[in-house]
Predict the structure.
Amino acid sequence: MRVKQISIFLENKKGRLLEALKALGREKINIRALSIADTLDFGILRLIVADPDKAKLVLEQSNFTVKENDVIAIAVKDQPGGLADVLSTLSNAGINVEYIYAFADKQENDAVVVLRTEDIDEGIKVLKKANVHMLSAKDIYSL
Amino acid sequence: MSLIWNKKAECLLPLEKEQLQLERLQHIVKYAYERVPYYKKAFDKSGVKPSDINSLKDIEKLPFTSKAELRDAYPYGMFAAPMEDIVEIHTSSGTTGKPVVMGYTIADIELWSEVMARSLSMAGCTKTDIVQNAYGYGLFTGGLGVHYGARKIGANVIPISAGNTKRQLEIIRDFGSTILTCTPSYTLFLAESAKEDKIDLKSLKLRAGVFGAEMWTEKMREEIEKRLHLSATNIYGLTEIIGPGVAQECEVKQGLHLQEDVFYPEIISPESLSVLSEGKKGELVLTTLTREGTPMIRFRTKDITSLCGGECKCGRTTIKMDRITGRSDDMLKIRGVIVFPSSIEKALLEINGLEPHYKIIITRPHQLDEIEVQVEASESLFSDEIRHMEETKRNIENHIEKSVGLKLKVTLVEPKTLPRSEGKAKRVFDQRELK
Ligand SMILES: [Zn+2]
């Protein structure tokens, strides 16, 4: 299901990632999942946190450019081929995946996968039809 | 229509004007030659005597004066009036070496007040206005120049000087300031702070601004007028000549009326040094026609502009100069192409969502010049997808290349990390090591 993600622009400068994480730490904002996309001269830090609105505010106060957008969170069985099945379902339906990252759910032995499709609604529709186990914002934040 | 402060001086017929300029030129050349050793030596070296000036065109026989000569004369070498007649001193800070020192007699201060009263009137200032003067007071001429002019008009001046943005905003709001005077980049700084402090700029009484002391563009005017809800006009001046008030835009906002009855302008080619005809772009050279303390004969301003004569819609007949589009010494030669940083700025400001802050870095890593423009990744440029960000970068690069004719690299940097000084911002960093 739809889950809020926040993205942070990072200049390729020493210490900026750390500063962003420290700013969140100071406000006791827990990070559920994190990914970094890197290019030669900038990076994008993507985070799933329990309180995205507060996280955005805190980071903006530290002069970061921050964006909030929706992504899809699903649970994938921690077994070979689990994720590949999901991706081929999407691909067969003609849905483009912009990026993807995963983290492990310690209690359930599942992998939690965050997906960003070009069209979120379409992505959800296709995944629902294929009976993929989707996670709500509440599920994610309480992990 | 705003009031013409001095109809007699600002609406002279061409022949009257030339006659007045010639009389004054003959007088000032003789005055400078007799009183300033530097001029005597320079004129003698060029083989020209004051009596050789029989027409305005004869000014071309005289040698130029540049900042280097003024520095050599530090501190009082350029003074033509005896020290006891000097009532004020201003300096123009250079980035290198000693400052240039200029002396003002009582008549010079009166001259300065007069041209500043004309300038502020052009922007619409009357005695009922409250002028918030956020130019720096001190040796820099901005603060006192506006102060003298506003006082001559009889307006109420708030001599707040530069800096302390929070207080500036409070005073604009609480004192009901109607006219703001400062550098154009500072206005955007103010607008940004107002947003942070949740001050609604629309609710303020500001209605006009007189902005100068640094280069800016038409696009920046649009931006300032939109953000601050006022009419933004351009003022030009320099300490070596008098300070602000040499030229100012009227409400037509197409060129700055240059106070020709007291400052005589020429446009020269910075390369050949020959005088160019009206309308041609080149370096502005100014001669003070009445200045007593430190008369300037053919001073090379290094500012790139052009002149345009004829009567303006506002009724004034003083010649108009275009806004400054570059400095002859900032002129960048990149891979053999002449580029002014201001034209890059102009192209940048045409892009939606881009903050008007940038930095230009020129390097020569492999025998070939490379130019990098840093802009801030504002919220409207930022995306969670790399693909979009790369696209945004390419679009900016293509847009600049189209309008400037130069291939360059755009780098996105974090917000609020680029220079926004409260005075002049240094935005060009030439790191080429030229042998
Ligand atoms: Zn006019």
